[in-house]
Design a protein that fits this description.
The chain contains 4 helices and 7 strands, in the order βββββαβαβαα. With 136 residues, it is an alpha/beta fold. The strands form 3 sheets. Strands 5-2-6 form a 3-stranded parallel beta sheet, with helices on one face. A two-stranded parallel ribbon has the order 1-7.
């Protein structure tokens, strides 16, 4: 059976971990847990990549487990290719989707339309959310 993170800290020595290598805030050799990333777990494994889809493909092939945002792993979990691991603590909060524009200026109409579209499309529960499927 293939697992997808979140990884229980007790599993780190038992499994190869697939590392995401592009974030300086979350290096590939260390996974952070807790709402404020207060728990850091050293991990190692056969592959590091700067592409979440490549790491999902590696996990599906059985090369290890991964710790990725839900939007990257939701479809493989729904299709049964990957299985989530139960946690002994919460995953790190990655924040949300943000729109930034210069202060003191009203965004142009086309930007405002895009903002409104994103708010409607994602709402409080984005379309990829596994909890959304459970509620449907």
């Amino acid at each position: 059976m293939i697992y997808v993170a979140p990884l229980l800290s007790a599993f780190r020595a038992e499994h190869d971990c697939l590392g995401f290598s592009i974030l300086s805030a979350a290096p590939a050799h260390e996974w952070s847990f807790g709402e404020n990333r207060e728990t850091r777990v050293a991990v190692q494994g056969p592959l590091k990549a700067n592409n979440g889809d490549a790491l999902v493909a590696a996990a599906v092939c059985g090369l290890g487990i991964l710790y990725e945002p839900e939007f990257i792993v939701a479809d493989p979990i729904r299709s049964g290719l990957l299985e989530p691991i139960s946690l002994d603590q919460p995953t790190a909060d990655l924040g949300g989707i943000h729109v930034a524009y210069p202060p003191g200026r009203t965004p142009p109409a086309k930007v405002r339309v895009m903002i409104d579209f994103l708010v409607e499309a994602f709402g409080t529960t984005p379309p990829w959310s596994l909890s959304r499927q459970a509620a449907d």
